[in-house]
Model the fold of this input.
Amino acid sequence: MATAPGTNSTPSPLSSLDSITDAIQNLELKLMTKLEELQKPLFEQLSDIKASMDKTRQLAESAIELAQMNQDDIKTLQTSDFANKEKLLALENDGKRLNLKLRGIDEKIEGVTDLSKFLATWLSEELQLEESQLVIYSAYRMGAPNNPKRSYPRDVIITIADPRMHALILDIARKRGALSLYGKQILVFPDLTPEALLKR
Done:
């Protein structure tokens, strides 16, 4: 069929440019939409991470604050505990101030009926005292009897009635270095706690 005079079937350059522009815009829109779809979960994850970090920071600050408070409480308790311990040690040592510890006394003498009287008689003779001057309230062995691992006799703790006699016995024993019972050396010590001995 013949083309009408003055009519051109070839599209104009402007029409082609508009089509390309529309295609580019549509592509850009699709890309932006796709990018937003991809970014959305990432932003959500970042938001969750930030919220988690904020919560962790709050917990850390609370923990630090609590630790500081606890540290102050611990210092107070330690000071109080130290003071109480010192008081207990002072009371314990005060209760032991009339005690003497005798080391080296053979356990075979346990057959005697009255250990306190036996030791009072021996000490009076050993120290050349009048027996009436020395009164021993109590005498007992330290530790459990019949220990197969122990190759030496248990210490004997005696309580002296008179503080002056206590000091005299201790003074004589220190000057001599040791006393003697049945030919064996007997050492005499004040009955103090380990902590008090370390301070001496």
Remarks:
- The chain has a mean pLDDT of 77.
- The first helix runs from residue 13 to 95.
- DSSP finds four helices and five strands in the chain.
